[in-house]
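Q: Two folds, back to back.
A: First:
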Amino acid sequence: VPIIFYLLFQESSTASLIALLLFLLAILSDVLDGYLARKWKEITRLGSFLDPFVDKILMYSLLFFFSLQNLFWFWIIIFFLFRDFIVMVIRWIASRDDVHIPEEKYKQLMSISLCGILFTLLLYHLFAYHYNLAGMQITWVISMIFTLLSLFWAFISIVKHILMYVRGVYHRRKFGKAILPEKIIILANRKSSGYHDLYRRRLL
């Protein structure tokens, strides 16, 4: 992020192109990291926390840069941060109430839309140095489409989390806590009379 910021503040087409390539490299490395973690089954709690946290640093810091350039709206960034805060609070309350909220697809769709916004704004930034008005207009329109999609997915995500929590609390109060199947270990004394009873051993 500091390197991309430094390049963007150089105000040259070459530096802007390198910033765009570094952003693409960051996104591709993030996708590859998630794929390898799932393939090799090395998903950890720390990684599950750090991965989206680092993504948000990259996304929101670049969006803030473009808001300073009057290419993006600061209030939209505030709304995205508000969405993250609401989701975090709901998940914290759900964990306290022992309500399971599964990972939602809207978070991934929102991340894809945010990547689309930043990619098109970085392209716009690059086209501006070449005075490519057609490219600037096209990338601006596409960035607006991605922005509307991001706002839509963020709103749906908030509503979905609230509904899943309310439904989980209702289900918990009505049916009780769900016991998930898990492996158990049974210790038996080979010298005991119960161990030599075939019926008891079959029950174990």
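A: Second:
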Amino acid sequence: MTQKNRSTSLFVLTILFFLWGFLTCMNDILIPYLKEIFVLKYWQAMLIQFCFFGAYFIGSLTYFLISLKKGDPINQIGYKNGIIVGLAVSGLGCFMFYPAAEFELYGLFLSALFILGLGFTLLQIVANPYVSILGKPETASSRLNMSQAFNSLGTTIAPILGGYLIYEFFFIEGDEGDSTKIPYVIFGSIFVLLAVLFRFVKL
């Protein structure tokens, strides 16, 4: 792999770290937002975090069990295909927000968050080790630190930017449930575009 290819791959992966940091913190905005729309009790509203982070546990455990029986799936399908699958699953989770908001189904919101969490789980399983091998072994920790820094940047600005998008920019008086449609369709489209980019970029 040439230095140019390494730099391109690292750049795209850094975008991924930023996005899943951003969308993870978007859950903090969804809790009060959906609680108000569906008139939920506190425990019902906290199912948002339960479904999202529960997907991390179930996805990681499933990956571990498959690895024990059939070997590491990433070694079999490759980093590139692993990232493409993770992006596709994440995009599907984002696109599911549209019908969830359209039909005002809280269960569908939770399903969308669960699928989004599964996609992020796969991306993290693939991306973390992949970043570490994109260059010299002695600089692996610095590359991971840089990627994690952009992940933290996403979690930092998500409450401000995400809150503005949902509560102001896309907010429609009398039809509050629609505020999540466009933002998450945009996020889903970004994931699809990144998947297409990974498909054609030489990694």
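Q: And?
A: The longest helix spans residues 3-38.
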